[in-house]
Amino acid sequence: MFLILFTLSLPPAPFPSTSLLYAPVVTDQENPMKSTSKLALLSLATLLALACGGERRSSTGVTGSGGSNRPISVKGSDTMVIMTQRLAEEYMKAKPGTVVQVNGGGSGTGLAAMINGTTDLAQSSRPMKDSEREKIEKGRGAKVVETPIALDALGVFVHESNPVKELTVSQVRDIYMGVAKSWSDVGGASAPIILYGRESSSGTYDYFKEHVLEKKDFAPAVQTLQGTAAIMNAVAQDPNAIGYGGIAYAKGVKALPLRAEGAVAAIPPTEATVADGTYPLSRSLFFYSTDKSPAAVREFVAWCLTPEAQALVTRVGYFPIRGAAPEAAQTTTHAQPTP
Amino acid sequence: MPSRRPELNLGKRARGRLIQDGAMTVLFTLSGGVAILFIALIFIFTFKETLPIFTDPEVAKEANLAAFFTTAQPADELASRYVWQPTSDVPKMSMIPLILGTLKATLVGMLVACPLGVAAALFSSEFAPRRLREIVKPTIELLAGIPSVVLGFFALIVLATWLQATFGFTYRLNAWNAGMALGIALLPIVFTISEDGLAAVPRAYREASLAVGATRLQTAIKVVLPAAAPAIFASFVLAFGRAIGETMILLMAGGNAAITSFDLGDPLRTLSATIAAELGEVVFGSGHYSALFFMGTLLFVITFASNTVGDWIVRRMRRRMQGEG
C-alpha cells in the first residue's frame, strides 16, 4: 500500500524528471536536500488528495446505498448543460434523496459514454447516428430510447455594434466556408470577418455543418472554442466576430434574423418561429437512455416532460416540446437520422 | 555497499541503522526504476496505437505519413493547402499547420521567458540585497504552482483584450497572446535553474573580477554569466520541452484555428491542444485516432530529442569551462 502511494506520487512531481539535466550542472550542496523535501511535500499532497478523494466518494456511496437512490449521471451536449442542470436542481428539490449529476463534454462525448456504459443518460443536441445506436444495441443488448426534451434555435451571433441586420443561410455558409472574408461582402462595414466555432466533438458543430454548410468543410480560419459560453464571450468582445450556438446562451451579443433559401423575409429566433419551424435553424434536443435503464432514470426523464419542467425549460431560454408525449409527430420532423 | 560492511561485532543500534540504510537504498532504486518503467510503458502504448498507420490498410488510407506532411489531395477544393480537417467527408490530415502552431507558440513563449528569466536570475543572485532576494526567489518560483488552466483563462479574458486594444490585432486570440501566457509558465523554469547556476559560480571568480577593477555590472555580465552558461542553457532546454507539450494555455488562448501562417498575429492550433480537443470523441481504431496518437509520439520524440541533445551540449560546455575541452 505504501509503495503504491509512493509511486503514484512520482509522476506529477516536476522535479525528478528534470534532474537529468539539473544534477550535473548545479554543484550547490543544498540542492539534493531541497528536492527531496519538495518530493516529500508533493507525495504528502498526493496522499492527502487521494485520502480526501476516497473519503468523498465513500460518503456519496453511503447516501446512495439506501437502494435505488444511486446518483443519476447525465453527460453530453454542452448546449444542454445549463438546462439539464436547472432541471436536475428542481427535480432534486421535488424528490429529496435523489442525486442527479450533470456533465458536459459535447454530444459526441455523451453518446460515447452511453456506448461505454459510463453514464445513465446521454444528452445530445443532434440525433444519434445509426452507427452509435448499433453499438449500444449490440454492445449492451438494450434498445435505445430517444426522448426529445426541448426545442432549441441555433443562433448566429455578431457583436452588438455590427451594422448587419440580417443574413441569408447561404451568406452564413459563405462566411463559414471562407468564401466571404469581409463584412462588406454581406452588406456590412469593410472589416475582416473573425470566425468562431465549436470543436468537432460538439453536436452544435455537427448540426451547423449539416444544415448550414451542407456537409462541406469549415474554413481552416475558424477559431474553435470550448463551449458556447466561450463563443459568446469572444463575440461580445470582438466587433468583427461571428459565432453560432444555442440561443439560450445569447448574452451581450446580437442574434441575427436568418432568411432561408427562397423565403421572403428573415426570421428572428423566437418561441413562435421555432415552434412552427419557420426559423431556419431550429432543432430538437434529446435525452438518450435504454429500455434497461433503472426506474429512477426513467422517472427523471418523464418528469422533464411535465408542464412544470417544460416551463423551466422556457425560463432557461429554450423552447418547450409541444405535447408531453415523447413521440410527438412535430418534433420528429427535425430529427432526421443521418444517412 | 554490502561488500564493504565491516565484520565487526556491531551494537544493536548500528546494525539497525545498516538495515535501514539498505532498505532505503532498495526503495529509492525501485522508485527510480518505476519512473523509467512508466516512461517506457507510456511510449510503448503511444507508439502501439500509432502502428496501424503502417500496418492496417484501412487506417492507412486516411492516415499516412504522406497525408500528415504534404498537401491535401489535388481533387479536393482545398487543394495545394495544408489542411487539418479529420472529421470531414474526405478527411484531410496535414499536421503542418499544427506543427507550425506549436513552433509559433513556443517561439513567443521562449522569447518572453528566456531573457526575462535570466535577467531576473541575474538580479536575484548578483544585485538584490539578501532580504529582497528572499522575497523575489520564492515569488517567482510560486509562478510554477499556478495551474495552466488559470493562466489560460487569464490570457483568454484579460490579456487578449488588452493586447488587441494596445496593438490593434485583427484576431483577439493569436500567437502573441498564447505565447505570452506560455512565457509566464516557462519563466519559473528558466529562473530557478539559471539562478541556481549563477549562485553556484565560485565566489573567487567575483572577487578576482572586482579586484582588477571591474564594476559589479561588468562582473555579472562578463564573468558570472558566462561561467553559469551551462546551467542557463539547460534551463532553456527544459523550458523548450515544457513549451512543446503545454496544452491547456494554448487550447484556451491560442484560438485553435489550424491555419498555415507564419504571422504571429494569426490564431494558432498546437499538436497538444488538438489531441486534447479531439481525443474525447474520436472513433477508436479509426485513422483519426491513430493520427492523434502519431502526434503524441511526435511530441514525445521532440521532447526526448531536445532533452538528449541539450544534455549533451551542457556536458560539453561544462567540460570546456573546466579547461578539458
Describe this structure in words.
The complex is a heterodimer of chains A (339) and B (325). By secondary structure, chain A is of the alpha/beta class. Helices cover 43% and strands 17% of the residues of chain A. In chain A, β1 (72-76), α4 and β2 (100-105) form a beta-alpha-beta unit. In chain A, α4 (78-94) crosses α12 (307-316) and α5 runs parallel beside α6 (130-139). The model of chain A is unreliable at 1-42, 44-67 and 324-339 (pLDDT under 50). Chain B has 325 residues and is an all-alpha fold. Chain B has 14 helices and two strands. A two-stranded antiparallel sheet of chain B has the order 1-2. The longest helix of chain B is centred in the first third of the chain and has 39 residues, at 12-50. Chain B is globular, with a radius of gyration of 25 Å. Chains A and B meet through α1, α2, α5, β7 and α9 of A and α1, β1, α7, α8 and α11 of B.
Oligomer: heterodimer
Give the % helix of chain B. over 70%
CA(first)-CA(last) distance of chain B: 34 Å
Low-confidence stretches of chain A: 1-42, 44-67, 324-339
* Secondary structural class of chain A: alpha/beta
Succession of helices and strands of chain B = HHHHEEHHHHHHHHHH
Cα radius of gyration of chain B in angstroms: 25 Å
The number of helical segments of chain A is 13
Index terms:
heterodimer, A: 339 residues, 9-stranded mixed beta sheet, two-stranded parallel ribbon, 13 helices, disordered N terminus, disordered C terminus, B: mainly alpha, 14 helices, 1% strand
What is the topology?
The complex is a heterodimer of chains A (339) and B (325).
Chain A: H1 2-8, H2 14-25, H3 31-64, E1 72-76, H4 78-94, E2 100-105, H5 107-116, E3 121-124, H6 130-139, E4 144-158, E5 167-168, H7 169-177, E6 194-198, H8 203-211, E7 223-225, H9 228-237, E8 241-246, E9 254-255, E10 258-259, H10 271-275, E11 282-290, H11 295-304, H12 307-316, H13 329-332
Parallel strand pairs in A: 1-2, 1-3, 5-10, 6-7, 6-8
Antiparallel strand pairs in A: 3-11, 4-8, 4-9, 4-11
Helix pairs in contact in A: 4-12, 5-6
Chain B: H1 12-50, H2 52-55, H3 57-62, H4 65-69, E1 84-85, E2 92-93, H5 96-127, H6 130-142, H7 148-167, H8 175-199, H9 203-211, H10 216-227, H11 229-245, H12 248-253, H13 271-278, H14 287-321
Antiparallel strand pairs in B: 1-2
Helix pairs in contact in B: 1-14, 5-8, 5-11, 6-8, 7-8, 8-11, 9-10, 11-14, 13-14
